[in-house]
Amino acid sequence: MQFSEFGLDPRLNKTIQHLGFSEATEIQARAIPAAMAGKDLLASSKTGSGKTLAYLLPAMQRMLKTRALSKRDARCLILTPTRELAKQVFAQLRLLIANTQTRACLITGGENFNDQSKLLRKEPQIIVATPGRLADHLSKRHLFLDGLELLILDEADRMLDLGFAEQLNSVDQAASHRKRQTLMFSATLDDAAINSFALKLLNEPERIAVGFSFTQHQDIQQQFLLSDHLDHKQQQLSEILKQDSLKQAIVFTATRADTERLAQLFSEQGLRCSALSADLSQGARNKIMDEFSRGQQKVLFTTDLASRGLDIVQVSHVINFDMPKHVEEYVHRIGRTGRAGNQGQAYSLVGPKDWFSFKNLEALLEQKIQFISLDGLEAKFKGLANKKHKPSLGKQAPKRKAKTASKHQQKPAVKTNKTFVVGKDMGDAPIKRQKKVDNLSDLDNSED
Fold this sequence. Notes:
Elements: H1 10-19, H2 26-36, E1 41-45, H3 51-65, E2 76-79, H4 83-97, E3 104-107, H5 113-121, E4 126-129, H6 131-139, E5 150-153, H7 156-161, H8 165-174, E6 181-185, H9 192-201, E7 206-210, E8 220-226, H10 230-240, E9 248-252, H11 256-267, E10 273-276, H12 282-293, E11 299-302, E12 315-320, H13 327-334, E13 344-350, H14 355-365, E14 371-372, H15 397-410, H16 440-447
Parallel strand pairs: 1-6, 1-7, 2-4, 2-5, 3-4, 5-6, 8-13, 8-14, 9-11, 9-12, 10-11, 12-13
Helix pairs in contact: 2-3, 3-4, 6-8
GO molecular function: helicase activity
Domain DEAD-box RNA helicase Q: 1-29
Domain Helicase C-terminal: 233-385
């Protein structure tokens, strides 16, 4: 479907043509008409499918073609789970509002709070924000959402995973206008938490699922290598980073400490590297991402902080130095490459600590994954056996039982059940009667 067929404002069509877009992706072809018709949406699609434009175009169409419900309140609010994703969305939004009078602002954590309050006083029509910081401004009454017309939740599942449910509920209550339209995008529609949350926020939503979230990405070649230990992984990583086809690479690790250690290690080997983690200030994170997006750094070492939202066409390789704990993060990680029709390479290093995470991924993909090896770096590790829970107490148990039995044979003991829950009928149980003293006179006679 061509973008010209959506009936968009001529200014938007002009911008789309200038950006070089002509044919809509599947999620765009299905979501844009439904959103422009005013329906609530619950949608999912694979990473890199163009869903950001799928909600930005209907939002801009509303800004340009309909009258505002309130002159002062924001008309559209876009919430994202991370600052990096918020910046990516805001960058695309700025391209769309360039030749219009629409005002927009970015509100994320890590930035000066007072400067943001000044931006909000300028009454922006569109706000792109992270939930935590926006909730802080709401509590300080720096903005009001009574007149909000469009609420967009990008990667709602991730926001719930990060514990933003309370902040999202506060936004929902502050923007409880009956004419509000809500668009919710999630990696999957089968999650119980997402469906429960959607029932609260959405009004008779149209469900759109484009492909299965974990289907094979045609533009990404996925390869898995077995690793013996940490040093072996580092040797394999060094070999991968020497490939001639590598333009830029993102290396995902399990811990923040590993990002810094590996970045320092490979910097000493002559590679231009940087480490990104949540420990850094927002200014430092901005600088690292800016340098990487400009190509000044060749390798970015990071945690799952950068698994979503980064849209850098030059990223040719993604390496999972550690397998992710949550299987769905694997898809978002490798989705940082193979974007905009480019071919990408995704390598995953699977050691003993990664084995069960790997097996979970294999089960979810419903296919047997084959391993490759690098010349001279073949692994001795071949996988772990499945854990089997046996009722047996081990080799020493029979010996203890035998000793106990021998004691019982020498000195037999009578077992009695003293509970009232399980026992014999009183008619079958033997009763011993004890002699009683009926009265005091009998007691006196016995003493005589």
